[in-house]
Amino acid sequence: MNDFFKTVNEHMATLELYTPIVARVHGALHPEFHDVKRWFDEFSPILKSMGNEKPDLDQAFASLREITEHYRVPDDVCESYEAVYVMLQSIDKAYSE
Predict the structure, then answer these.
(1) CB–CB of 26/33 below 8 Å?
(2) Largest CB tally within 10 Å, which of 21, 47, 66, 80?
(3) pLDDT below 70 — which residues of the chain?
């Protein structure tokens, strides 16, 4: 569980910066990223304010895996898009452990 809290803390600031930019830049060709952004916008406050209690996000991460096809990065996107998926997958993995 400590890995989960550490991973969230490690990635949140960058995710908050990259997610809206990637949605704006790639959203037209990759509308699924708008769903990723909505997911992030919904669960970011929970992740930031969870304190010492691990929130119940099993269904949330299952939904994110479905939206992203298990974090499959499209061929025609920038490094920031890929970085968002890598960070979200890292949080998901730490949550599941």
Answers:
(1) yes
(2) 47
(3) 1
